[in-house]
């Protein structure tokens, strides 16, 4: 069962299909052709044999007709009947004269078969028998009591052909003789003959078989009782078995295959008129099928040659077709192991060549994607390093700011103390250990510390409006995303402005994303400057990251569907729109630095 459950290779499947769809039909067709040819050959041989047997039966029937005609002619000839009657009544002196007259009268009817006529027996009504040519040796009363004798007395002037009967003649070596009888009618008043019995040998029938071709065929004529009337010289008595006789009696003519001794024979038979005789011809089966054997060998050789040539060509084509597939499978295995240089060479088959080119192109694309991935990872690591490069010795910086705060507290310089406290909290948040994400509410708090420092630095030159959706405050985002943008609005937008500026910070959840907008009414930027600003990195601030770097960080972490868009604010200023995915919690718990006193 494993053979059927285990997947087969493409080449094995093609080979099986070739055998099933080509070799098997060729063998089947060749076998059918040979069987049809053999059947036609046997049929033609049978028809020719039956034609020969029909000629034999016709000749035998002609001979039987001659015997019946002679018997009928003798049975109605008044001269013959009266002479036979006078012969039995004459004395010895006149007897010879009547014998001569009878011989002369009978010669008119028996001249053509004189060589085969053995005897004619005349049975008298009142008893007694006269035998012409040879004497009767069998008991007269036994013959008179035979069924055929009594039956014939009821059918006067009717000739009955008795086929072969035991020889009734003295000195005859043949045990059987061809026999015909007739009972003359009673209107011959001068006749005392009751029955005429004719005995003949088989010479005429022997001549019929001697006229047949002298080949390996054997001929025999048998009576309905199975007695051999005549047979060819090469016929074997042992071949006539009871089973064969029974099969022959079953139909008027036909044929069958029989095993005779150690040879296989084709037996054909036909009836001889209504006598019940059968003419039989036996032909060696090997002779009948000799042409078939030659054709069989030729067809077998031709079939094998065609199959071999076809299989050679087919296997070559299958190999040519499957070899590129095997190469492709092997190359794909190498690719699975990490070998991306396993390219496929050219193929002579157009489809396989196209498949090879596609496979090679796929490898090139994979290497390109891997290279791009590596570059992105390197850029991401550089961005993270640029975002956190200020973490060098963070404890020292925070402790120093804490010392400045204590000095301002001692000196009762509240502005310095408050500014130092805001800067310390802002730096502490930037240097916070843990993940790269921060809660949005914490980011807002850091922005407020940053704004406090910038307000002291630049004076009261701007105001900030906050429009934050409460649902957005619990979401997470990358650290230090908003401070560079807010710094850009203050430094570049409000620095040269004479009137009080305004910065609006908005945040909301829309269509499954977190949207943050920072807009100002500062100096603004031209369309050319905006385009240039989108394509280059901005000057570094204390965080080491500009607006362009923020956009790049967002896309590195979340994909190209997210980022920032810079547009002109209406009626004046700059508008920065940021789109980031919704993140519900950081993957790692933030662990803030502990401030040392």
Automatic annotation (TrEMBL):
EC number of this enzyme: 2.7.13.3
Transmembrane domains' residue ranges: 12-34, 295-318
Residues annotated as domain HAMP: 319-371
Compartments in which it is found: Cell membrane
Enzyme class, broadest EC rank: transferase
InterPro entries, A to Z: Bact_2-comp_sensor_kinase (IPR050640), HAMP_dom (IPR003660), HATPase_C_sf (IPR036890), HATPase_dom (IPR003594), His_kinase_dom (IPR005467), Sig_transdc_His_kin_internal (IPR010559)
One annotated GO molecular function: protein histidine kinase activity
Top-level taxon of the source organism: Bacteria
Catalytic activity line of the entry: ATP + protein L-histidine = ADP + protein N-phospho-L-histidine
Alphabetic keyword roster: ATP-binding, Cell membrane, Kinase, Membrane, Nucleotide-binding, Phosphoprotein, Transferase, Transmembrane, Transmembrane helix, Two-component regulatory system
Membrane-topology descriptor: Multi-pass membrane protein
Ranges of residues in domain Histidine kinase: 478-584
CDD domains for this protein: HAMP (cd06225)
Alphabetized PANTHER family for the sequence: SENSOR HISTIDINE KINASE YPDA
The protein, known as: histidine kinase
Organism: Paenibacillus qinlingensis
Highest classification ranks of the organism: Bacteria, Bacillati, Bacillota, Bacilli, Bacillales
């Amino acid at each position: 069962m494993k053979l059927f459950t285990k997947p087969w290779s493409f080449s094995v499947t093609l080979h099986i299909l070739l055998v099933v769809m080509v070799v098997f039909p060729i063998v089947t067709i060749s076998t059918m052709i040979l069987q049809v040819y053999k059947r036609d050959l046997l049929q033609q041989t049978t028809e020719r044999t039956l034609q020969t047997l029909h000629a034999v039966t016709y000749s035998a029937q002609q001979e039987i007709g001659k015997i019946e005609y002679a018997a009928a002619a003798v049975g109605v000839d008044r001269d013959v009947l009266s002479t036979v009657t006078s012969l039995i009544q004459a004395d010895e002196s006149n007897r010879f004269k009547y014998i001569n007259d009878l011989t002369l009268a009978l010669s008119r009817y028996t001249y053509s078969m004189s060589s085969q006529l053995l005897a004619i027996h005349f049975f008298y009504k009142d008893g007694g028998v006269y035998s012409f040519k040879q004497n009767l040796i069998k008991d007269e009363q036994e013959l008179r009591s035979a069924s055929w004798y009594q039956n014939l007395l009821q059918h006067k002037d009717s000739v009955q052909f008795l086929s072969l009967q035991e020889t009734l003649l003295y000195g005859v070596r043949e045990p059987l003789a061809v026999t015909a009888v007739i009972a003359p009618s009673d209107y011959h008043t001068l006749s005392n003959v009751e029955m005429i019995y004719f005995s003949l040998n088989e010479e005429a029938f022997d001549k019929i078989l001697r006229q047949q071709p002298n080949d390996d065929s054997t001929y025999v004529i048998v009576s309905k009782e199975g007695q051999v009337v005549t047979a060819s010289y090469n016929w074997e008595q042992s071949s006539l078995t009871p089973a064969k006789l029974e099969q022959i009696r079953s139909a008027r003519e036909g044929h069958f295959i029989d095993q005779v001794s150690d040879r296989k024979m084709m037996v054909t038979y036909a009836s001889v008129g209504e006598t019940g005789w059968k003419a039989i011809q036996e032909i060696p089966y090997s002779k009948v099928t000799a042409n078939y054997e030659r054709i069989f060998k030729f067809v077998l050789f031709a079939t094998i040659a065609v199959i071999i040539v076809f299989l050679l060509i087919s296997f070559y084509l299958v190999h040519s077709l499957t070899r590129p597939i095997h190469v492709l499978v092997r190359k794909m295995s190498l690719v699975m192991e990490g070998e991306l240089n396993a390219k496929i060479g050219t193929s002579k088959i157009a489809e396989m060549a196209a498949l090879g080119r596609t496979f090679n192109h796929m490898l090139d694309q994979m290497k390109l994607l891997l290279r791009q991935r590596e570059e992105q990872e390197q850029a991401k690591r550089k961005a993270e390093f640029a975002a956190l490069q200020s973490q060098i010795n963070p404890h020292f910086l925070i402790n120093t700011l804490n010392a400045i705060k204590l000095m301002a507290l001692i000196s009762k310089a509240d502005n310095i103390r408050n500014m130092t406290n805001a800067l310390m909290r802002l730096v502490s948040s930037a240097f916070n250990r843990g993940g790269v994400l921060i809660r949005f509410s914490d980011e807002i708090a850091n922005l407020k510390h940053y704004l406090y420092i910038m307000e002291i630095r630049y004076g009261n030159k701007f105001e900030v409006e906050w429009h934050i959706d409460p649902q957005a405050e619990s979401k997470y985002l990358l650290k230090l995303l908003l401070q560079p943008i807010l710094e850009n609005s203050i430094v570049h937008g409000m620095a040269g402005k004479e009137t009080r500026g305004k910065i609006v910070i908005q945040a909301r959840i829309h269509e499954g994303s977190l949207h943050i907008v920072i807009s100002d009414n500062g100096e603004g930027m031209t369309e050319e400057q905006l385009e240039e600003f989108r394509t280059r990195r901005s000057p570094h601030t204390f965080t080491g990251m500009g607006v362009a770097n923020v956009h790049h960080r967002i896309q590195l972490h979340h994909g190209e569907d997210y980022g920032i868009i810079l547009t002109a604010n209406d009626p004046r200023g700059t508008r920065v729109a940021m789109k980031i995915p919704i993140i519900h919690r950081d993957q790692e718990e933030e662990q803030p630095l502990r401030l040392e006193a």
